[in-house]
Structures are given as structure tokens and as C-alpha cells.
Design brief:
The protein is mainly beta and 171 residues long. It is built from one helix and 14 strands, in the order βββαβββββββββββ. 14% of the residues lie in helices and 45% in strands. β9 and β10 form a beta hairpin.
Length: 171
């Protein structure tokens, strides 16, 4: 279901892939685990993302989806830190609202919270990264230990967000 044309990823659910996505990594993972990605894309295409209840939806042993609603965070908020994963790739898609996401590939970040294997997450002290604008028109893919990201950030003022985060097992 993934269609790479002219270096762009065309998806069946209508949103465009953000320019920050590592296309070679995605192509390699898709070649190995296409069923996982097709499952996610099929879910995004066939589900009314504005009406589905919040919470976790398990699609298989290697894929699940979180439907989240929250208010964006101020850039200086204590809980607005970078995060990284080891087991799962994130596909993040804003259903409604807009937020900023910061992205870094730096491996020299100060660890705030050590890796939690059960939750597959660790947190880092924030620093200045590449600022990405997330809307319902685009989506992001963050690879484990490569794409250290800081989601949920306010653009101008705190605003409500509805977001889908699909988790695809990396191995």
C-alpha cells in the first residue's frame, strides 16, 4: 500500500509525508515488514479518526494505535521534553488542531528519565532542534534511537489536539 514516487510517499489516507521522514529507512523497513505498515495505513484509511474513542487499539502483535486528545504544551514546560524509543517506530498524525514538533538526531542529549522497557520510552532534556509544523495535512515517522522528538508543542497558544500515534514494531 505504500507507494514511493519521485521520493515522496503517497498514502491512501490523504495526508502527505513530512519532509523530515527518513525515506531510505522507511523503504527498507517496509520491504521487510510491509504487512505491518499496510495494517496501519488500512486503519487510517478506513477509520473515522474524528469519532473513534480515545485509547489504545491493538491491531496485531507488532502494531498498535493510540488515539489521544490533549492540549499543547508550552516550549518551556517541565513535561515538554524530547523522547526516544527502542522497540517501536512512531507514525504520528494530527486528526484535528495544530502543533509543533521538534526533532533532533543528536546523541549527546542529557537523559532526564532512563529507558522504561515496559513503556518503550526515555526522556531527554530539551535543546533546540528542527521545528516541524504538524497539521491534518501531514504525518511524521520517527525511527527508534535515530529520531529523537519533542511532540505536543504549542504554536501560538495552548490548543486542543486529537492525534493518532501508530506504533510499528521495529524488528
Amino acid at each position: 500500500m505504500l507507494n514511493f514516487e519521485d521520493g515522496k510517499l503517497n498514502t491512501p489516507f490523504g495526508a502527505a509525508m513530512d519532509k523530515s521522514v527518513n525515506i531510505p529507512m522507511l523503504k527498507a523497513h517496509y520491504a521487510k515488514f510491509s504487512k505491518r505498515w499496510d495494517m496501519v495505513l488500512d486503519f487510517l484509511k478506513k477509520t473515522d479518526l474524528k469519532k473513534i474513542p480515545t485509547g489504545r487499539i491493538v491491531l496485531s502483535d507488532s502494531v498498535y494505535v493510540n488515539i489521544d486528545e490533549y492540549k499543547t504544551k508550552d516550549f518551556n514546560a517541565d513535561n515538554a521534553n524530547y523522547e526516544a524509543h527502542k522497540k517501536y517506530i512512531d507514525l504520528q498524525y494530527i486528526v484535528s488542531g495544530e502543533e509543533n514538533i521538534e526533532l533532533t538526531h543528536s546523541q549527546d542529549l542529557e537523559i532526564l528519565t532512563p529507558y522504561n522497557e515496559e513503556k518503550d520510552i526515555m526522556f531527554f532534556k530539551h535543546q533546540k532542534g528542527e521545528l516541524l509544523h504538524a497539521t491534518p495535512k501531514n504525518f511524521f515517522i520517527f525511527f527508534p534511537q535515530v529520531d529523537i522528538h519533542r511532540p505536543c508543542l504549542t504554536i501560538k497558544e495552548q490548543s486542543p489536539i486529537r492525534k493518532v500515534v501508530a506504533k510499528v514494531l521495529a524488528d
